């Protein structure tokens, strides 16, 4: 085997490892001196020693301070280095480093999130309201409308909103600009529909010369007649954007004509309504919901639209407790509220005998105040919904308390009255009417009637027409 060539020193001896290391250190030492004067790059040994010294000094500082970590020092030195490099780039005009790009990305991301925070549903709704066509009621021209028909995308006044609400949510769903909590999806729908200008261009395209649109001081009869003709019967509509529906004519002729000339969306609305009536009539039984309890017929609908309203009632259906079983072991309950000819309902909660809805619904209060009827049903997919109990709420004390407060100068929270539990009602306890934060409210717990069990908790709030 061939041995490697060895280098001998001046004495003819092979150098030992100690000699080699010392000679290497001396060589590096001399190279350091040369680097000081020549400005050449440091040797690897310099880098290693400097790193050891830096690490050692860093550990000493960490021990002496006891709070700041050596990692913080390293990051700070890196930030200072990057900062000095940024200053150099500002003067030299060189390309940005990765840290610059990351920081600019973070700033850009923060700035893009900020507009979303400042432009929530309520802010966007106010921007829509500020548009010229939306500053007056779409149906009577009253200034400063505070209500919206989300179905037709129009801003309306409080009086016209009562007529809309009487027509039923299947035709026109009404929301308050201030009292209801809006979602981005609802605002997007309103934007897509185009507001008052676009809606009136469609639904008032062909008003006859001898027919006058109601004004802000119009009677309830005039409003009702116009709104029903405009939205329900579509007598003034430009149905396909180019051709108008025949006018005048009986409602049946108008409906068939619109089905052939109107837009697909209008067709779908008519077809859906007819189908719902057919299915409802086919599956009626003794447990099922009756038409007169939830759905208004044509005659009662027309009468409801003629009613004068004195205020609004906001009903928060809180929860049910120990409700009746209508399926095998449980139920799918929902609540229907009826005031006069108006009806609204909550969402269905699946497989729950102690459902928590916490859902607010709005109804107009007629001049002749009827009781608020509460009905609970179990949702069935293939058969008629099963009855799960009912109750009635006398809202007269709440309305009287709200009127008294409206004419007073009371500002502090206090009890205004109560609905006393007794044999003539199904109250679990007295329904206290209180004033809190300028709102007249009443909390009510009801035992459901005509059923084996069940309690319903409801919160009422009386809203004056000025809101």
Automatic annotation (TrEMBL):
Family matches, as PROSITE patterns: ARFGAP (PS50115), C2 (PS50004)
Annotated stretches, region: Disordered: 24-125
Keywords: Calcium, GTPase activation, Metal-binding, Zinc, Zinc-finger
Arf-GAP domain ranges (all copies): 122-244
Statement: the UniProt record of this protein carries the keyword Calcium: yes
CDD domains recorded: ArfGap, C2_ArfGAP
Limits of the C2 domain: 294-409
Protein known as: ADP-ribosylation factor GTPase-activating protein AGD11
Native organism: Populus trichocarpa (Western balsam poplar)
UniProt xrefs under PANTHER family: ADP-RIBOSYLATION FACTOR GTPASE-ACTIVATING PROTEIN AGD11-RELATED (PTHR46220:SF2), ADP-RIBOSYLATION FACTOR GTPASE-ACTIVATING PROTEIN AGD12 (PTHR46220)
Keyword Ubl conjugation found: no
């Amino acid at each position: 085997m061939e041995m490697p060539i060895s280098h001998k020193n001046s004495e003819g001896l092979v150098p030992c490892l100690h000699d080699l290391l010392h000679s290497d250190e001396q060589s590096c030492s001399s190279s350091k001196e040369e680097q000081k004067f020549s400005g050449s790059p440091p040797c690897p040994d310099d880098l290693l020693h400097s790193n050891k010294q830096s690490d050692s000094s860093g550990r000493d500082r960490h021990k002496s301070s006891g709070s700041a970590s050596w990692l913080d020092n390293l990051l700070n030195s890196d930030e200072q280095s990057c900062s000095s490099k940024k200053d150099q780039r500002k003067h030299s005009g060189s390309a940005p480093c990765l840290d610059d790009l990351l920081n600019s990305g973070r700033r850009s991301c923060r700035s893009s999130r900020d507009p979303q925070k400042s432009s929530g549903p309520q802010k966007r709704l106010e921007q829509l309201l500020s548009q010229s066509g939306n500053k007056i009621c779409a149906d009577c021209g009253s200034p400063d409308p505070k209500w919206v028909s989300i179905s037709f995308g129009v801003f309306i006044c409080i009086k016209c909103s009562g007529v809309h609400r009487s027509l039923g949510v299947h035709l026109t769903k009404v929301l308050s600009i201030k009292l209801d909590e809006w979602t981005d999806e609802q605002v997007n729908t309103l934007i897509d529909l185009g507001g008052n200008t676009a809606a009136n261009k469609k639904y008032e395209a062909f008003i006859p010369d001898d027919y006058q649109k109601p004004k802000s001081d119009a009677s309830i009869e005039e409003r009702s007649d116009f709104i029903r003709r405009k939205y329900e019967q579509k007598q003034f509509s430009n149905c396909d954007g180019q051709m108008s529906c025949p006018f005048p004519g009986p409602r049946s002729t108008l409906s068939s004509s619109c089905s052939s000339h109107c837009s697909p969306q209008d067709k779908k609305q008519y077809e859906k309504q007819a189908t719902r009536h057919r299915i409802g009539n086919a599956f009626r039984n003794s447990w099922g919901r009756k038409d007169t309890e939830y759905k208004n017929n044509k005659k009662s609908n027309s009468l409801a639209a003629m009613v004068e309203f004195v205020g609004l009632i906001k009903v928060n259906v809180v929860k049910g407790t120990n409700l009746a079983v209508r399926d095998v072991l449980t139920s799918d309950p929902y609540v229907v509220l009826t005031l006069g000819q108006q009806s609204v309902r909550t969402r269905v909660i699946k497989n729950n005998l102690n459902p928590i809805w916490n859902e607010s619904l709005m109804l107009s209060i007629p001049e002749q105040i009827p009781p608020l009827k509460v009905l609970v049903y179990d949702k069935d997919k293939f058969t008629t919904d099963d009855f799960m109990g009912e109750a009635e709420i006398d809202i007269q004390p709440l309305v009287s308390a709200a009127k008294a407060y409206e004419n007073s100068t009371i500002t502090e929270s206090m009890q205004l009255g109560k609905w006393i539990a007794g044999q003539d009602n199904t109250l679990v306890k007295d329904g206290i009417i209180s004033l809190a934060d300028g709102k007249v409210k009443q909390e009510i717990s009801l035992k459901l009637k005509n059923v084996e069990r069940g309690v319903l908790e409801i919160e009422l709030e009386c809203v004056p027409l000025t809101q």
